[in-house]
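Sample log: C-type cytochrome.
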Amino acid sequence: MKKLALALSAVAAISLPVSAQGDAEAGKTKSALCAACHGVDGNSMIDMYPKIAGQHAAYTEKQLHDFKDAMASGGAKGRMDPIMGGMVAALTDQDMADLAAYYATQTQSEAPAADVPELGEKLYKGGDMSRGITACIACHGPSGLGMELAGFPMVSGQHVNYIKIQLNKFRDGTRNNDLNGMMSDVSKKLSDADIEALAVYISTMNQ
């Protein structure tokens, strides 16, 4: 909670480092190699890979840098992923900025219809103070659109399986590139049932 309060109090002053001005048209051309996993427009048809269409450019750019940092440091820094590490190894800062700019201009596809789980909605909107679980809405907003200046990503409409994978990675410590460790702190308190319910609820938020 203290970490969250500190981060939110500084939202207005936070500015994510951007190494280059992204060119969406250039990014479209460069995105050909990304299409196999993420789709031609950033709407992945494979549910273990994220939809990146409409994602905040600054967030996407940061993730690309984190993947590259992890490969260069053997996982000591950044976000380790063997597939993405290999994909970004040859990318320049300008390439990353261009790709992020392109995907930010795309429109996210609507998620398949699903029954909205009461537990997922409850945790997202109100958390569970008895277990020290902060509401997701605090960082990702009432519609799941996140806050770009603060570095909080859009999560609404994302694949259920991808959300589950990432929450589990935050929970077991295999992903730790989140701001001030906030996602790790929250995820460690989530049960498997909590993660399932949240993933389904979040996936329905763009409908």
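Observation: Residues 57-73 form the longest helix (17 residues).
Observation: DSSP finds eleven helices and no strands in the chain.
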